[in-house]
Every structure is written in C-alpha cells, then in structure tokens.
Amino acid sequence: MKQPSVDYAEKCPLYQSIQSLFSPSASKDASLPPAASAFSAPPGALSVPGFELAIHPSATSLPRLWDEMLPEGQQMMTRAYLGAQEQAPAEGMGYAYLLFYKNKKAVGLAACQLMEFRALRQIQSLRQLPEGGFFERLLQTAKRAFASRVNYKLIICGATQFTGQHAFFFDPGRVAPEEAMALLDDGLQRLSRSLEADGWRAGGILIKDLEKGPCLQGLEQKGFSAFPFEPNMVLPLRPEWRNFDDYLEAMVSKYRVRARRAFKKGKELEARELDEESLFRCQDEMHRLYDEIAGKADFNMLILPKGYFLALKQAMPERFRVFGYYLKDRLVGFCSTLSNAPELEAHFMGFEPEINFQYQLYLNMLYDMIRTGLEEGAEKVVFSRTAMEIKSSVGAEPVDMYCCVRHNNPVLNRALPALVRWLSPNGEEWVQRHPFGGN
C-alpha cells in the first residue's frame, strides 16, 4: 500500500487546527542563546514582596555563596559541575543562573539551560513509520509533519544530562514551598524577558523531574502543566550490605544465578578506570560508542560533544569516574558515575550492540556501578530512566517523575496537554522484577 504523503497529512483538519496555534515568530529566530555577557542583570525586586533576583550568565560569574547554599555533598549544581558543562556544551546549549535574595541574603537558586527544542530531532521515534495498517501510518505521518514545524526556544530549569530534581534549591528555613514556587516562576519570567530583550525569545519554560508534592502543586497553580515521564530507577543500598557479596547474598536464588551467569559471560572483558590522560586518548572512540546508544533512544533531549567526559573529569577528578570495558585491548564500551552524596549517579554510557549481546556487557555495567556505590558508601544508586526492566532485575525501584511545562502563548498553553500526549512516544512496556523477594 502506498505510504501516505506529508502533503496529505498537512491537509487533514487535525493537523491544520493544531498547526494554527503556533505563531510564526516562535521559531523564526534561529540564533544560539545570547553570549554570556549579553543578558546579565543586577539584583532587582521581584513581584513577591521582600525578595530580589540576580541573573548570572555563566558559572564563572557565580559567587562562592552559590556552593555554600547547596546541601552537603550535592554536586550536580556546584560551580565546578556547571562550569564543566559550559566548557563542553551540548549542541546548541546555553546557560543561565538565578540567585534569589531576601533582605540581601541569598535564600534560593536555580540553574537553567537554554536550547531550541526541535520535536522531530528530539522525539526520534517519530522518524520511523510504524508497522500496521494505513491509518496507523497516516497518523504517524501527520505527527511527523506537525513535529517538523515544532521548533521553539525553551528555558529548561534543571539538568538535561541527569534524571532527578537538580533544578533549584530554596532554604527551607526561610522560604516555604508554596512561596518558593512563586519565586521560581517570577524569576523564570524575569529571565525570559531579559533574554527576549537581547533577541532570544523563549517559546516556553520546562521545569524537569519533580516528584509529587507541594512544589508540583505550586507550579500547576502558576499555569504549568505537569506531565508524567518515564520513572527514575533507584536502587536503595541496604545498611547491611557491607560489600558486593552481601548484595548478591540478599538476592533470591534465581537472580543470584542470573548475576553469576552474566559474570561468566563477561569474563573476557577487562574493566579499567580511565584517568584524564586515558580519556583524552580515547575520546573519539568513546563518542562513537555513546552515539551507538543515544541514536537509538525514542527521545533524546541533547547531543553531547566529544570533549564532554574529559571536561567533567578535569573539573571533578575524584567524584566523576569513567570505566572503560576492553576486549583484547579494544575499547568496546564504557560507563560513568558521579558521586552526589548520599547518592551515586549513573551517568552516560556507550557500547557496541553486538558485544553487549554476546557478553551481557550492559548487565555487567549495572552490577559494576552497584559495586562502586557500595565501595563509596552511597545510600542509593540512581540508574536514571530507560531500560527499566533490566534495571529492576538488579534491584532498582521506579520513582515517578513529572515535568512541568508552560508555553508563553496562552492559547497554545491551554492546548499543551493534548499536544504532548499526541506527540509523546509510546511508553516502554516492562515488568517490575523483585530480585530480593516479594511479588
């Protein structure tokens, strides 16, 4: 049967009614985010009485008190980490930082990333036509045609490189949760206006990875729409697990046998921790392996540059670790972790698919990250989203996460929930495994 054409899809009433909501100006400015000095602003009063906001255009411009405000051990919002992102930015990415003051004392902060959201590029599953009948292919073609027009600039409050709430922090002793979200909303609107004055007009604001609670409710009251996203997979490390053998012994027999089978299949692989010099030498190969995995994801918010891992290692040599997996001295995979006390964060990885199949490389990586977490004394290992079933097989449990989005066009903002549901990839079907017993 002949494939439905894009022209036919563009003529359908559903496509036309949705497309008409987009202002042509939303994507006409294709420039990158403003230069670091372009939109800085001195502290100014917010609409919330008694509070002021300072906008900082780069991590190097942040005062020392930024780090002093963060909870002990928190790394993903430190100046060192943020500076490393700027040294090796994702494609088309810009940055901005908000500091909130009350009576001239800092009480809150927020880290933002600035990018142009291109739906057809980010939602990679839309590029392929599904198997099925004429109407299924027609609907996918309509989605793809519409997504090709959804290009608008986005302020992201949070870290696209990680899963979890790494967007903002407010001193709980001085700012109540409902007040904090009013401040955050006010600050993000102020940032949006500052960027627009410099020629970079944001189409919307996204605050990523929140759990259910007062913050989520507060943002919904400010006109944001909350959308469930794939869950964050988290493995709590029990106090009685003093080492990796204790972890294995806690498993029911079926999963302990499965783990040992994976170790046996991967025994020809050699895992090496990579130092700065090693990362410099093999960064081309690492980037190729990263692309192998990132290019197959249903949804990919960003594209990392080649020098990303080296920049992070240089900025955080003890906390950021990269492990290379070699087969006969050939790099065939890697994984990375960041110590973010009390958590160990699993970061980006890459591998050759055929090697993964033959040697169960990915599963061995998961076990090695658990071993690393136990050695570092972490309380949990955060495996992030995707591949939920295999992560649950090593003990990870799902934590529901939500993203809050608000479009700056009021008409489109009202239609946003329906649009997001229409364009979203189908969720991964998976079965929760229970390696330590239970149902």
Radius of gyration: 23 Å
- The H-level CATH homologous superfamily of the largest domain, spelled out, is Gcn5-related N-acetyltransferase (GNAT)
Question: Quaternary status of these chains?
Answer: single chain
Q: Helix coverage percent of residues? A: 25-40%
Number of helices: 16
Shape: globular
Helices and strands, in order, run as: HHEEHHEEHHEEHEHEHHEHHEEEHHEHEH
Report strand %: 25-35%
Quick check: average pLDDT?
Answer: 84
In the residues, how many domains can be counted?
2
Low-pLDDT runs = 1-30
Category by helix and strand content: alpha+beta
User: Might you state the CATH topology name of the largest domain?
Assistant: Aminopeptidase
Reading off the top of the CATH hierarchy, the class of the largest domain is best stated as Alpha Beta
Report the CATH architecture of the largest domain: 3-Layer(aba) Sandwich
Kindly report how far apart the N and C termini lie: 46 Å
Major sheet size, sense and barrel closure: 14 strands, mixed
**Count of extended strands:** 14
